[in-house]
Write a structure and sequence with these properties.
about 450 residues, mainly alpha, two-stranded parallel sheet, two-stranded antiparallel ribbon, about 45% helix, binds heme C
Length: about 450
């Protein structure tokens, strides 16, 4: 046997085999690794695809749950406040007997086009509906189509309740003015909250709280005007500013608040703080609330008398809803400006001024447009009086986040709307900080503000 001939091919085969194996193993490894990498990549691109059984999956389930129940609460939850608006104030009676759809539109109420029954929608389109008949308002409330006004368990003729969406939602007017898809978080600056509450036949609950007569309560409510509400009235009983004008403040947007530390014009607290405050003390839902700052008799005589510093209702319908409500609110983005709604070149220059010579960004720090941290300033620092600041525990104004300013130009700017236009706000700062901006600079700054 020719060994050489035998070994020859064997060794060749062996070498070939080893070579092939040497190549195949790394190839397989590369293949496996690249497949795993592709899977990771796919997961990264698609963050909602957690592997089953992982904690990531639990997080995603939680997120989806908070989001959907938060939206539901924001839009539809009354926290049991029917007890106040209907049992005490009897607002439902006023609506059923005297609020036609025409009146409802006139006081700024909005209709969710996706909830209006089809028959009513086509009747509106064909002008075949009597907009002067209160029965149609009741039908719309029963269909949950009137934003922020909910029918009670026995229907709107029996009772109604109010939700967060009343003041902090708007519609896109897609069907008609005042009728469209919901825009949660947008301030309803047409809504005349005072006029709506003043419709109530029995205001004794408010009168007793404030220790004034019902006629005076009505005068105060009617002094607010559209787009305003006075959250502090029920704490300190101050209805008018020293100059005699209403002490009510503008309804702010409730979007674009993620990353912002303190809320309300005067920085009462965080989003869940304020949500608990409003649901308990303003909407008069049934829950638990604790803030001993309200026991200060000198600053908050009404609240101290009423015990608002520690509210403990047996049937707490608020506390369990705070997490989802906060989550949903923080998810609401500030809407981007409409195409062509501002002069882009001017806005570019305005941005340079905002971050430079005009010194705006020292307080309105982009991209939050408020200070990270404790964003609070005295009236003197921003060149205004302290009246509203002094109605809050910190006696200061919070730097307003500016994104989405373009959505709430109606009603003016600053907490009480004292500056009717963005230009007048800029002129105020120009004087206060002796910025010596030219007319063109001020125009450009305004265009920048409109672009946020
Ligand atoms: C009757 C109208 C009205 C209703 C209903 C209402 N709010 Fe408000 N909301 C206001 C007003 C007015 C302010 C400003 C108060 C202030 O600064 O003193 C405000 C402030 C806020 C802020 C602070 C915004 C910011 O810029 O920091 C948030 C958040 C908010 N409301 C959420 C809610 C939630 C959640 C609900 C339901 C539980 C609710 N509101 C119900 C009128 C209303
Ligand atoms: C010292 C801090 C500070 C500086 C500097 C500052 N702001 Fe403000 N800004 C505030 C505070 C605080 C408020 C809230 C005032 C109120 O509601 O009464 C505010 C409110 C505003 C508002 C009204 C927002 C609204 O929704 O009503 C606008 C607009 C604004 N600032 C723009 C500017 C511009 C433009 C500049 C630069 C020229 C500037 N700010 C500089 C602190 C500041």
């Amino acid at each position: 046997m020719d060994l050489k001939r035998l070994i020859g091919p064997w060794s060749t085969r062996f070498v070939a085999f080893t070579a092939a194996a040497a190549l195949a193993v790394p190839c397989a490894v590369v293949l496996l690794v690249s497949r795993a990498a592709a899977r990771l990549e796919a997961q990264r691109a698609q963050p909602f695809a957690a592997l089953p059984g992982t904690f990531d999956e639990a997080v995603e389930r939680n997120e989806a749950e908070l989001m959907s129940s938060g939206r539901q609460i924001f839009r539809f939850d009354t926290f049991g406040d029917e007890r106040f608006w209907s049992d005490a104030l009897k607002l439902h009676q006023a609506i059923a007997s005297g609020v036609s759809p025409a009146t409802a539109f006139a006081v700024g109420l909005k209709l969710d086009v996706d909830m209006v029954p089809r028959t009513i929608l086509s009747a509106i389109a064909n002008r075949a509906i009597d907009l002067n008949d209160p029965a149609n308002t009741v039908a719309l409330i029963d269909a949950k189509a009137v934003i922020g006004v909910m029918p009670g368990p026995g229907g709107a003729r029996q009772s109604i309740g109010l939700t967060c969406a009343l003041c902090h939602s708007n519609v896109d007017d897609s069907f008609a003015p005042g009728i469209g898809h919901r825009r949660d978080g947008w301030a309803n600056r047409e809504l005349n909250v005072g006029a709506i509450i003043a419709l109530s036949p029995d205001l004794s609950a408010v009168a007793n709280l404030l220790q004034i007569d019902q006629a005076t309560v009505r005068t105060v409510l009617n002094s607010w005007g559209p787009g305003k509400f006075d959250a502090e009235l029920f704490l300190d009983g101050k209805a008018f500013r020293p100059d005699g004008k209403t002490a009510a403040t503008l309804l702010p947007p409730a979007f674009g608040l993620a990353g912002v530390n303190l809320h309300t014009y005067t920085g009462w607290g965080s989003v869940p703080y304020w949500n608990a405050f409003v649901a308990n003390l303003e909407m008069h839902g049934s829950g638990t609330f604790y803030d001993p700052r309200l026991n200060n008799k000198d600053q908050f005589p009404v609240a101290a008398r009423a015990g608002f510093g520690s509210v403990r209702q047996g049937d707490d319908g608020i506390t369990a809803r705070l997490a989802a409500l906060q989550f949903y609110q923080l998810a609401l983005p500030a809407p981007a400006p409409l195409r062509g709604s501002f002069d882009a070149r001017a806005a570019d220059h305005g941005q340079t001024l905002f971050n430079g010579a005009a010194r705006c960004s020292s307080c309105h720090v982009p991209p939050l447009f408020t200070e990270p941290g404790w964003a609070m300033h005295t009236g003197a620092e921003i060149g205004i009086d302290d009246f509203q600041a002094n109605r809050s525990p910190e006696h200061r104004y919070r730097t307003t986040p500016l994104k989405g300013l373009w959505t709430h130009q109606q009603g003016g700017f600053y907490h009480d709307g004292r500056y009717p236009t963005l230009l007048s706000v800029v002129q105020h700062y120009d004087q206060l900080f002796t910025l010596r901006l030219s007319d063109q600079d001020m125009f450009d700054l305004v265009e920048y503000l409109k672009s946020l």
